[in-house]
Write a structure and sequence with these properties.
Length: 176
């Protein structure tokens, strides 16, 4: 039904908007069956949609994905398997707090964008994303609010939060 409803909605809004376009949003890997992920990959290809989701937000989530998808090398590899991780599909992944070096390489090589959501990561005690590392590697990073875990949609607040967690990262994680 999710596939059917998504396609029906896409067909209904096709060419309806000038400045706003649909984006395919699998909530995150644990909320999608393999069958749904495959269908979302097919929808992405057919409609050439960008993709947005969550990636490596907290350690429990990363372990859960490893448990659910034992044949994948890491979290991002699950999305990649279904064609939902960059390359031909513009992709934005929120958080990326606990991305492994191998996952970060795939983010870079597939031109995946990282959405830094400092308020959400702080509110959920997820950790602090290594944003300077991503920027130094040439990975595109933007700010997000992830209102489900954050407390505001204000981009100005996201800027302040990013500065504050950056200072904490420098002080607590990597003073280089």
């Amino acid at each position: 039904s999710s596939e059917r409803n998504t396609i029906e909605w896409l067909e209904n809004v096709k060419n309806s908007f000038i400045h706003t376009k649909p984006i395919l949003t699998p909530r995150f890997v644990p909320s999608c069956s393999d069958e749904l992920m495959q269908k979302l990959g097919n929808i992405q290809k057919k409609y050439c949609l960008p993709v947005q989701s969550h990636l490596s937000e907290n350690l429990d989530e990363v372990r859960w994905v490893e448990e659910l998808c034992p044949n994948s090398k890491f979290y991002g590899d699950v999305y990649n398997h279904y064609g939902l991780f960059g390359k031909n599909a513009k992709t934005v992944m929120a958080h990326c707090v606990y991305s492994t070096d191998e996952e970060i390489e795939m983010i870079k090589n597939n031109n995946v964008f990282v959405a830094h959501c400092p308020a959400s990561n702080t509110n959920l005690a997820s950790g602090i994303a290594p944003i300077r590392k991503y920027l130094n590697m040439g990975i595109s990073v933007g700010l997000g609010s992830d209102v489900a875990g954050g407390q505001t949609e204000s981009i100005f607040r996201a800027i302040v939060d990013a500065i504050q967690v950056s200072k904490l990262y420098w002080r607590l994680v990597d003073s280089n």
